[in-house]
Structure formats: structure tokens, C-alpha cells
Amino acid sequence: MAAAAAAAAVGGPQPPQPELPAPGLSLDKAATAAHLKAALSRPDNRAGAEELQALLERVLSAERPLTAAADGEEAAAAGGGGGPGAAEEEALEWCKCLLAGGGGYDEFCAAVRAYDPAALCGLVWTANFVAYRCRTCGISPCMSLCAECFHQGDHTGHDFNMFRSQAGGACDCGDSNVMRESGFCKRHQIKSSSNIPCVPKDLLMMSEFVLPRFIFCLIQYLREGYNEPADVPSEKDLNKVLQLLEPQISFLEDLTKMGGAMRSVLTQVLTNQQNYKDLTSGLGENACAKKSHEKYLIALKSSGLTYPEDKLVYGVQEPSAGTSTLAVQGFAGAAGTFGQLDSSDEEDQDGSQGLGKRKRVKLSSSTKDQSIMDVLKHKSFLEELLFWTIKYEFPQKMVTFLLNMLPDQEYKVAFTKTFVQHYAFIMKTLKKSHESDTMSNRIVHISVQLFSNEELARQVTEECQLLDIMVTVLLYMMESCLIKSELQDEENSLHVVVNCGEALLKNNTYWPLVSDFINILSHQSVAKRFLEDHGLLVTWMNFVSFFQGMNLNKRELNEHVEFESQTYYAAFAAELEACAQPMWGLLSHCKVRETQEYTRNVVRYCLEALQDWFDAINFVDEPAPNQVTFHLPLHRYYAMFLSKAVKCQELDLDSVLPDQEMLMKLMIHPLQIQASLAEIHSNMWVRNGLQIKGQAMTYVQSHFCNSMIDPDIYLLQVCASRLDPDYFISSVFERFKVVDLLTMASQHQNTVLDAEHERSMLEGALTFLVILLSLRLHLGMSDDEILRAEMVAQLCMNDRTHSSLLDLIPENPNPKSGIIPGSYSFESVLSAVADFKAPVFEPGGSMQQGMYTPKAEVWDQEFDPVMVILRTVYRRDVQSAMDRYTAFLKQSGKFPGNPWPPYKKRTPLHPSYKGLMRLLHCKTLHIVLFTLLYKILMDHQNLSEHVLCMVLYLIELGLENSAEEESDEEASVCGPERCHDSWFPGSNLVSNMRHFINYVRVRVPETAPEVKRDSLASTSSDSLSSLQSSRRPKVLQRENSGTAQVFSLVAERRKKFQEIINRSSSEANQVVRPKTSSKWSAPGSAPQLTTAILEIKESILSLLIKLHHKLSGKQNSYYPPWLDDIEILIQPEIPKYNHGDGITAVERILLKAALQSRMNKRIIEEICRKVTPPVPPKKITAAEKKTLDKEERRQKARERQQKLLAEFASRQKSFMETAMDVDSPENDIPMEITTAEPQVSEAVYDCVICGQSGPSSEDRPTGLVVLLQASSVLGQCRDNIEPKKLPITEEEQIYPWDTCAAVHDVRLSLLQRYFKDSSCLLAVSIGWEGGVYVQTCGHTLHIDCHKSYMESLRNDQVLQGFSVDKGEFTCPLCRQFANSVLPCYPGSNVESNLWQRPSNKSIQDLIKEVEELQGRPGAFPVSISSETNLSKEMESVMKDIKNTTQKKYRDYSKTPGSPDNDFLFMYSVARTNLELELIHRGGNLCSGGASTAGKRSCLNQLFHVLALHMRLYSIDSEYNPWRKLTQLVEEVNSQQGNEEQQLEVPILYHDVTSLLLIQILMMPQPLRKDHFTCIVKVLFTLLYTQALVALSVKCNEEDRSAWKHTGALKKNTCDAEKSYEVLLSFVISELSKGKLYHEEGTQECAMVSPIAWSPESMEKYLQDFCLPFLRITSLLQHHLFGEDLPSCQEEEEFSVLSSCLGLLPTFYQTEHPFISASCLDWPVPAFDIISQWCFEINSFTERHAEQGKALLIQESRWKLPHLLQLPENYNTIFQYYHRKTCSVCTKVPKDPAVCLVCGTFVCLKGLCCKQQSYCECVLHSQNCGAGTGIFLLINASVIIIIRGHRFCLWGSVYLDAHGEEDRDLRRGKPLYICKERYKVLEQQWISHTFDHINKRWGPHYNGL
Fold it and tell me: 1522 vs 837, which has greater pLDDT?
């Protein structure tokens, strides 16, 4: 390389080292670029161009060796100066500089963007991107929009949804080929080109010079990096190269984003052939370039591709190698040589293990030329770039770059052609790829953009043979996995099928191909070419036949299969995707008459392929036994095109039908499938494992049924309508193996079926006939009728949600067909047949979805059991539909009993299929019906009600579809006389019904009862037995005209077949019968059969009438209705016959028979006149009776069992309702003895484990089942009523400063700053966050019983939803979740004698008593020293309570572990439970009554446990606040002496409720009522004073002086101590002595209340201040002493509660305006004690006035806690959060979630935010909710609850327009908040009932 020369050519300083870019040069990039740009702008720019080339050559190749080194020996590279990274950076910098021509790169970008005609959006996205699809605006079904374009456009009222892209895609906004212009967004509506100025020439001039070199450089890298070793290069190597190229490709990607101007330059560069040729030919002296070209050729060769000039392969003379490569254009040399090209050896390497078995089948020479697969020629950068993209298995960056260019129209065409040219290579690479899934997605990402555009698809179809390529490539792909078919004739079969076990099919590797093929067939113009091209059709049928008969099942007869293969998934998917969907695509273009020719073509080649198939498998007329395949795509193609031809194209059916012989063959395999379905459901295939059931279900499942079972049944209907009916009917019974059962004899032998399967197979055969004869899906129903029938069938099985209905109704499976689910017809039909049931909420908490349920008239007129049977995947659904039908009839009073399936009128048949009804009028069927009726009447075994039902259904069908005129006697057909002619004279059912049959010959085993009675038997048995055993029908003379002959279905069918064959093959006179399988040979081993003649003397009519008697259980129950009411014959549609059981059905049939012929009417009347003697009971042997009864008994036992189960379930349900219903305590189970009886001495408890009752004692204590849980619900109360909103913009944030928990925290830390720690811990309560809440289900058990119960749970291996090791269990009785047992204190619940009448002691005496009682430490009836069981349990439960919450929520002391901490924690537990109960009651006690928790309250027991432990810590009597409250302290000044010593908390700063609990719990239990009242009275005085102080601080200076003045005047009146004005004025004057009021600065103004204080408002303020205390105290009194709470209005709550607590003297209530001060009862002179309390405050405010004031204003009016308020539409949440970055790890989380309590955004399961093995959600649930977290999962719209170590999915509070959840946003429909659900969620959170109501809990192992 002449580097020095090149460098010299560049103007500017000479570089010192020519090999590397010189530092001087790099400094001056901009100048050089500017210089070059100027040089190039001159008219004669050759010099400039050369200069630039040389510079580029140097800049861009300097890095090449380094890259090679990086690939090869990295060590060498490490030594290289600066590593490869630096050089590449440098090169990119140069490029940017040169492009900008000396200016700044960013300015250049902006300049280019200005010229962007933004007509198309074209934004490219990768997998998992959230995009939108609007079906209203889309022309192509693949249309998609990015979120931005979607929200900017107007799609209101459209059918749109949001979806997560699976393979990636691009935004189509602005592309009118794909979507309607009305849907374009605001940005892309403007038509461009006119107003965009022309691009100045010099702006992009440099780009045109620089980019070719740059792209060539990139290609050289790709060539270098790809080392083709013997094996496929490893993932790692490829990825390494790609990582190195990351900056280059990103640079190209950025260029594409500059807009249209730059794109067109790039298009020029990429498609210019001359540039490519000059740069890459590999000629010239440049060694590097040569080497690179060689690598390229090697890569081509190793890919099994040839470069067209390879002389060895092509016998075409070439000029010498040095000359231009363009000499050989295209595929010129390829023709005719494909025979030699066989890459199969290379293909087979990967699958060599199967080589022994695999018989590789080559494409026959008639297929398209092989060059499609093997020749590639690159003429431009674009082509080679795509080649490498494929080689490197579609790196995402490259794909994005190639797609970003698509808005450029010229590029789009070029790229599409290139893509098609490489199509075969793409598929080859895909087949070998390790990562075929990822690769498939990327391929489809590209192809869907190209092939969805009809214009483009048509162009490449015409110019590049796209269809030929696709079909050839598909064939080629499947060829690699063909195996010999084992169907029918295993040894000699020539047919090959795909092997479903191969990876290609198992992993669905072929889907990109198939999906492209379906995509292009959706375009009319392309499909037309396909349907006109005979060669293509032949090839395609060839392809489809690969799937014909795949995945063959062979019935296991001996032992169960060892290994259940799951290949059937692959088989069904392959047939649906590779065969059925292209078929539906083609069918969608055959809708009109003009397209008849296409149908004829398809049908013709389809029949040819079928004929080839029958020949290949050597099929004559008997299918091989015990094998079935569910895959007959050729049959289904044929059937569906026939159906279309008749329905839409008005073709004459007979013109496209083959001869009779072919029809006979065609019907065999579909019929075999129907029989196999019955066998599988009869458990005859049970040894094949579950997978065979899976196949039977998939075959009829909604996504498959209209490509599988529907065409099969239709084909059978076509065959039946054209074949001889007797032949068809006998074939059916033969296939179902029940021929031997159809005998008049009571015993028979079945050579092919076990007795236990006979009944279900017979039911199967009859049901199949009913379906065959009554289904009209392809026989004349319109699309709307079909939709309606499908919908009714699904709704009858079960109520359905809207989405499941959409899913269950088989739409035309090709999504391109234009019948879009959710289209208007769907909605209108739905509203016509169903009612919407809005989602409801049950108290058990299970969430219902919005459901659709059938309207009454649908049940009445449209319920069609046949359709239901056809569409049920599970047999239980049929039962479900019948049960619902029964329920409807009972409810509407139409029929009380157990109804039979109703008979439904059918749509009229299309004239082409009239022949189908001949089945109902053939003697064979009539003989079968007659025989079955007789057998049922005679109670033969193995018959069921279902059989009778189907028999009657068939008779009725026959009557409905009888020929118009009834010829009384058909002219006897000449020709050989048939056996069945001896049964019935004609073939019309109407006349045959009245034909009497006197005697019948039967074949019976010698042991049969008939033999003994039969004298005639001996005479004729021989001739008959010989007939039977040879199974060759001979013409029989009638022996006596009355005797019907032995009738052999099989023989009849054989004879028919023989005749047809003879007729069709005249040249072969003697048809050689195939060797029949052994089972039809004479049953030698079976016991000898003899012939008997039975006397019957019945006709079908007489049998029906007798059946009526039998069913009704009465003799002569049938009386012809027309004898009473002649009208009935004139208008026969009588509603009373529509619904009913068998009796009704018989009556309906007889009526129809009488209507059809006068003869029948007369005969019915005659039969009824002969009073029929009872059917003689047959002499049945005991053994026979046993078998008969067994089935009956089984049936009865089953029914009994159902009944018992139902009863049990309902009992359990009613119990659960009473036990679980949180809101209705009335119906609760009485748990404890009621408290109203004063004579009770001791409470008695029932143990729910051992069932014994008794008191709780020291040695054997009883306990309450409780659940302890930490709760932060209280801490979430705020002081404003409006709940906070969930933030949905950056501006909205939620700050937790105003929550109750935060306020209390601040208060405590403020106190701890200035006062003594131990005193602070008595002045407040904790537990606002992480407080322990105790709840119980109310059931009790012995504690020792509980221990053994826990032991048994521990040993139980069953997976429980809870952790026994953590002490969790479920209550043995009501199964409520619990985790501890709270011991019940011995003695009664209520000391009844103490509170019956208040004692008359003065308050002073009581105060003394209280003080004394508190002073006695540990004075308990239970002495602690003797460790009893009870005290042990009390200690252990206390431990449980402590361990329930985290340490940080119970340690607030400055000295860790101090006893004050425990003391504080214990009384706070009591506080938490009282406060929570108050919240459960709605925040006030107005409702009164018993507690909402009812008998489930455990506060009484909890108090005992807490009190026991509190007494262990006696408060030093010095500090006991009781003294400060009730005594005046003399030495006032002592405290001030010592500055150092920290002060006690002033009594006015104490929380009064806390004081109350401390005082109560320090008293010995049980407490006396008068002591309680005394404590309350004393504390009320303190509370009231606090209220006055707070009031005084709240108001301003003027108000204060005014009050001070007015109050002072009244100070000396008699009840001054009970007047708030006096007290207020006294407080103000006392506090004025200190500095409290002096801080009247600016910050004071904020506190000034805007309202002017009137006496009323002051009174209200004081009452509101005191109310919380009164409420808690009243609740406490209610629990301790069992008094009921009075209910009241809100405004009188204060007075009612105060009188209830004994604060109000009883005489007081008469006075009208109530004044709170009247409740005061001062224990010591008021003014003295107030003055003492104020003094403490003053001495504190001396130093800290500001804090002193802050501590006085307590906010006591907390509102109820609420979850955050959510927006109406879910999309607002989703759009904001799903792309939001996490504040911890600053990444966008994969699973974002948001806390509904505080609005924090967290990563669910994100390892990024994990701390000490806790993931973020779990961590947050501990910090925010003390272990309870409620999170909304943004990407799933569901709410997840975390409770401790467990979690559960709660459901969604967002529902779509049909009241359904959309979990994981799969459907992507708009979702709206469901307020009721959200209320339920909030209620469960507040009431702490998540554990009880939600059932599906699992451990989360801290991983959420």
C-alpha cells in the first residue's frame, strides 16, 4: 500500500509516520474537510476526488489490521498503540467531520433534518415495544402505530388495542397503502413534497463521496470477522465482531434518522452497482482487498451457494477470470443443471443420527429449477450487506438500520427485491441456526414490512418469481425431515410424511416462511396468480401431501406405552399453520362467480394428489385396524373448496365430484376419525396415555375445529348424499364396531369389541349419525346464522366473558379474511342472544367478571344439543348445558322433571345436498331403529337412555324430511333380492313405521334363552349358519313371507362395494378381493351359533306406543290427542311438545306420523284400542339379571353420591358464609357465653379440636385462635378528606409529611430532644406504623390441643399456603388463617357484680384507692413465682406479639433494650387495636351496638395478657403521672435548681389516651367499674385543659385579651370550674407569664385560623378536641365491662358518650344547649392544678418557645385512611409508568410496579434494586406497610398483595367495557377503573382481612 504517496497528496503538513494518522492531521480535521469540500465544489473536481479517496483509504483502512488482530490473537492487539477502539473512534470522527464539510457535525444534522419531507413515521421498534393497532383504520391487518402517532391521531370509538410487539415492527403512520388516511396523526397528515424546499447540492455532496467507502469498510470488517471453520462459527465469535462494529452501525442508524434527504443519498450509495463493482471486485494490487474478496467467496461456497462464475459447476464457457464479473448476468448458466447440485450431504450432517431410518426424498425433477436454492449473485452494497446480515443471524442493530431506510420508496423496492433474492439463503441459515426463535422474530420483523404492501408484493411476484421461490423453499425445508408413512400398508407404502419429532416442526422453525406466505396470499392480485398457475398448484398439493397422515397413532392393546410422545402439538400446529391458513387465504379470494375456474383448478389437483396418496399407501377399501391419524389436509382442502364452490360460486356440485369408487375411498379416513373419537372417549385407547385424549380434544377445539372436524363432517355429508344409503349406514356401524350388537336376540357375541365398551360405542355411532344428518354448517346456513348458532352453543354450556366468547367462536382462521372478531355482526348477534351480567362482588371476596348469559327465548327456541355436542372439548360441558337447560325449564315453569335434549328445527338444505336425506329413508337404518326400539323395550343389556334419545331423534328427523308424496308400495326393484327386503317393503320411513314384522330369524349362542323355546330352529339352522360363517350373501328364497331374515350389515356393505367396483371397472371382470383382515374370518373359537326364530308381531308404531307405556309406568297411558281435539292435526306446532322428557318425545313423533299419513293415524288408533297386555316379563336368569342391574345400580349410586356431595357442599357453603361474612355478626356461631346473665360465675369455652367444653384453668388454659399482624394502616391517616391522587406526571409527587405516622414521629423525637427519655416514653403512644393488630375468628381451643395440632401440621407433607415453622396454621373449624393463640384468663369474662350499681364513694376516696392499687407491684391472683401453664402461655404469646413487628417499630428509646421500651410497646398494642376498631366502625361510634367485630373481639383477653406484663414494670411512684393529676405539688422550685438534669415531660404535653391505657393496665385485673370511671374523670380534666391551651395558642392576640377579660369577670360565680370561658381566661393569664405567646412573628400568621371565633365555634373546637379520647374510652369500657354502646346522631355523639362514661351527671341531660365543660369533675381545685400545669410549660418555653408551642397544638382530628385515588382510564397510568426510570437503579424496570398506599415506584423482581437479598417490593412492603404491600403491576394491570413472607395476586381494579380484567394487557383494550372493586380492596386493607379473603397465597422468598 503506497501510504506515503497517499499522504503526500493531501495538502497540509507531511505526517512523520506514514502508517498511522498523524497527530497534526487529526488536529486539523475541520480544516482538511473544508479544504476538500471546496476542492470538490469546483467544476473540475477530479483532483479533489482523488485526494479524498486517498485520505479515506488511509483513515478507513488504518484500523483494519487491528480488527483482524482483535479477532485473532488478542494479545497482539493489546500491545498495539491505543488498542483498536481508539483507531475506530478516530475513523468515525473523520467521517463525521468530512460529512459536515468542515462545519460542526450537530449543525450539519440539523441542516439536513430541515429538508425532511416527513410523510411517513417509519419508527422501527424491537421486541416488547408497546404499540397500537386500529382495525377501523387498518387496510392491512398487520398495521401498527407507535404510541405517539396513535395518541396524536383521532381513534375515538374505533376498534383498537394496545399490544406488546413480539418480533418488532415499524410505525405505519402516513402510509396510505397500509392504513386509511383518516387515522394519520397530526404530524403525518400534511402531504409533503410541495412545501419542502429543494436540497442544496453542496449540503450532501461530501456524503456521496464518503459513504460508499464507509459502507465498503463495514463490509470488509464483516468479511474479515467471519471465519468459516469446519463447524458453524460459535455464537461468541460472531458477537465479538458485532460488538466491535457497534459504533459504525449506530452511526449509519443515526444517518437514517436525519430524514428523507439523507435517506435518498444512502439509497443511492447502497444500490449503485458501479460503486460496488469498483470497490469490491478484489482486483488490483491491493492485497488486503484481495484477501477480503477471497473470504467473501469462501463464505458463499460454504453456505452451499455458488457464485455464478464457478466454471466447475456450470458447463458454461467463461472469459478469463481477470475480466469483468458482470459478464454472466443473473441465472443464465443455471438452467438445467440443478440435477447435479445436491446439497443434501451437507444438510444431513446435523441429523445424521436418523440417517438409517430416514429415506431422504429428492424433489422430483418436475419441480422448479434448483437455482432458486443454490445461486446468489451480489451486485450492490445492499445485497452484500443483507448477505452478511443473514450470515451473522440478523443482528438487531443491522435489522433496525435496514428497516429505518424503508420510508424511502426507491430503497423499499430495491430492498424487497434483494430480500426475495436471498429468501432461500435466509431459510437455509434459519434451519441451521442455534437461536432460531430470535432469528425467526427478526426475519418476520423485516418481511412483514415488505409483504404487507399489496403493490409491492404484486411487483416482486411478477418480477422476481416470489411465489415460486416461497413454495420451493417451503418444499425444500420440509424435505429434510420426511420419513416413510406407516399408514395402511406398512411394508409397501410409498408415501412419505413429515416427522413431527424433528426440531424443525417441534420448534415451529418454519413459521416465518409460512407467515410470509399467508401474508402475500392475502393480496388478491398475488393469490390470483397462484390459483392460475397449474405448476404451482401441483407443487403446493405435493407439499400438502407431506402432512397427509402424519403423526400416526397405533392403539396399544397390551401394556401402557412407556413414553408418551408429545409430537401431536407439532402436528396440529403444522397442519393449522402450513396447510389450513394458506387454504383460508386462498378461499377468501374465491367468493364470486367469476372465480369458478380457480376452484376447478384446486379441486382437480387436489383429487389427483388424493388419488396418488391412495395408490401410495395401497388403499382399497378396508382401513387398517387400530390406527388413526387426525391429519388429512388434502381431504380438507377438497372439502372446503367444494363448500365454497356451492355456497359462493354457484358451481354444480356434481361437476366437481369424482366417481363413486373415489367417493367411497374419500369417506373412509374421515369416518375412521369419527369412530376413533368415540373409541377414545370410551377409554379404549387408554393405554396410549393422556396424549391421545389431548389429540381428540384439539381436533374439536375452537381454534382448530373449522379446519379439522367441520371439513371432515362436511366431506362425509357430501359422500353420504351421493353414495348408496344402505352402504353408507352399514359402513358407519361397521366402523364403530357395533354391528354384532344390532340383533334381536337378547345375547350376542361381539368379535371386535369388549362388552364394557359396547354401550358408549353405540351411543357414539348414533350421535354421529344425528350430527351428520342435522348439521347444516356448510349445507345452506348463512354466515350470520352460523355465528349465531356457534354463539348460542357456547353460551348454553356456560356463561361466558366477552373475550372468551371471541376466542371460542371459530372465526375464519385466516386473520386476513376480513372477518374481524369484534366486528359489528359479532356485537349485534351477541346482544340479540345474550344478556350482560355486570361483575358482582361476593362477601367471600371472589371477583366476578362481566358475563354474558343466554336470554330466555334462546333457551326456549334456539338451544341446540347437536351443536353443543359437536363443539364441546370436555364431555362435562354437554352435561353442564343440559343442567342449565333443566334449570331454565324449572324456573320458567315449562317443565318440572328431567328434560331430554330438545328437538330443533333445521335450516333448509341447499338443493345440492338433498341426497343426504336418503340416509333416513333406507331399509338398513329402519332395521337398526326397529331392532334398537325392540331391544330397549325388552330391556336388553348395554342400552341407555341416550341410545333411545338418539333413536327417537333419528325417527323424528326422518319424519320431518320425508318425501312429499307417499307411494303406498314401491315398485319392487328388479335385480337380486336383498336380505333386508324381507324386513320392510319400501324405503319410506312413514310407510315403514306401520309395517308389522311377525317373525325374525336370529343367530344366537346355544346358551341363549331363545334356543330352548324354539322348535323351528333345527330345520333352518344349517343353511343359515353356512351363510353366516362364509359371510358371502347368497340369494335366499323367502322361507315364509312373515319371517324377516337374519340381517348382516357387513355382508350387505361388501356386496354394494363389489357392485360399484364392477360397474366402474368393466375391463377387470374379476375383481380380486383384497385379503381382509383376520377379524372377519369365521369366528371359530366362539361358541357355536344357532339360528332361532323369534315371534315379534310389532311395528315401529306399536313399539313406540309400548315405550310410552313403559316410560310413563302406566298401562294404556297413550291416548291419541286428535280424538279429543281435531284442531291438533291442522296446526301441529304445539308449544307443549317443545320441551319435555322421553314421553313428550314419543307423543310428538306419533303426532307427526299421524299427520304425515292417514294410514298411520288409523293404525295408531287401532293399536290404542287393543288394550295392550303388559309386555311379558322375560324369563331372565339370575346371572343375566345381575349384569343388567349392575349398570342401573352404578347409575343410581352415582346419582346418590352426587346428591350427597351437593348437600355437603351446600352445608359447607352456608357454614363458610356465616363464618366468613365480615359484615353480619348476627348470624355468627355463638362462641362464648353471653354476658347478659348476672349469675354466671365462670365462662365456658368449647375446644374446636377435642370438642370438650369447660372453663379455662391455670393448668389447662384455653386460648382464642388469633392472627397477629403488624399494621401501618393507622399511620396512613391524613388530616384532609380528599384522598391523595396517584401521580401521573412528573410534577405530581406525594410527600408523606402530613400522615399520622410522620406527625407522631416528629412529636416523639421533639420530646426526646428536650426531656428525659423514660418520661418521654410514657407521654405518647407508638404503633402508628408497625403496630400489632390482633384479630380472631372467635373459636377457642385448649393450648395443649393446639400444640399437638401444630405437630401434625408439621409432619403433613402436603404443600400448604402457610409456613408452620413460623407458627402459622388455619383454624381447625373455620379454616381462617391464624398464627398464635391468646390465652383466656380464668374467671368470668365480666365481673358482673361490680358494675350493677355505682358505688357511692366520693371521687377523692376512689383516687386514693387507685393510687394504692397501682403501687402494689405484681399483686396478682396468679403468683408469678409458681410457673403455671397459663403464665407460660401468657409469656409466649407476648413474645409472639413482639416478634410480629420489626425491631425498628418497637425500639424508640435512646438506650436500647430499656424496660421503658417494652412498657411503651405494650400499652401501644392496646392503643393500636382500639384505634383500628374505631376506624373499622367508620371513625366514630354513632352506629353504636356491639362491636363490628362482634363476638370476634379479643380485646378483653389481650388486656389481661398486657396487664400481666405491664405489672412487672412498676413505675417509680415519684414519676407516676397519677400524682401530678390528682395532687398539688408543694416544692415548686426544686426542679429549676439543676439545669443539667433533664426534665420530666410537662403533663400538658402528655397524650391523654396513652395515660388512660397506662393507668388501666397498671391496675390489678379484673378492674372495678368505679375505679375505671374515676380514672376517666381525672383524665378528662387534663384533656379539657389541653384543649383550652391549644385553643388559646391557635387564636391571635386580640382574641386572647378579649377572652381573658370576659372570663375574669365570671371567675367568682358558683360553677366557675365548669365554665369554659372562665377556665380559658385563667389558662391565658397563666401562660402569659411565660414566653409562649411572645413569638408572634411571621410564622405565627400561618396558624391564625381565618374564622372568627364565636362561642359556638369554640364549643365545637373543644368538643372535637376531646372526642377521640371519649371514643377510645367508650370502646374500652365496652370491652372491659361488656356494656353496649348507644347509637346516636353525629352532632350528639359527645354528650351521649360522656354520659355513657359517667362524666355527665344524670340530672344534667335536660338542659338544652349542651356545654362540654359541664362534664368536668375536678379532683382538686381547678385553678390551683391548672396553674401548676401551666407553670411546667412556662419554665420550658423560657428557653424553647417555638418548640413549646409546636408541642401544644396537637392535630387530633385524623380522617379515615385511604388508598391513593386512581385515574379513570388505565392508559394514563400505563403511559406514564411503563417507560419511567427507577429512582434507585435509573433503568427502566422490566416489571414496574407502584405502591397504592404511598405512590412509590418500584422494580418488581428487579435484581438491580436488591438489598441484602430482599428485592425492592418486599423491602418496600416492610418499610411502608410493616409487611403489607399493595402494588399495582403496571404491565399487567393486576394488583399484587404482599403479606409478610407470602404474596397473592389480588385481581385487577381496571376492567374493560365488558366488565373483564385484562391480565398482562394481552388484549390491550381500553380499561376503566371499577370503583366497587377498588372499594373492596381498600376495605380489605383497612380491615386487615387479606389473609382471610384471598385464597391463593404462595411464598415469595423475598424475590418480588
Answer: 837
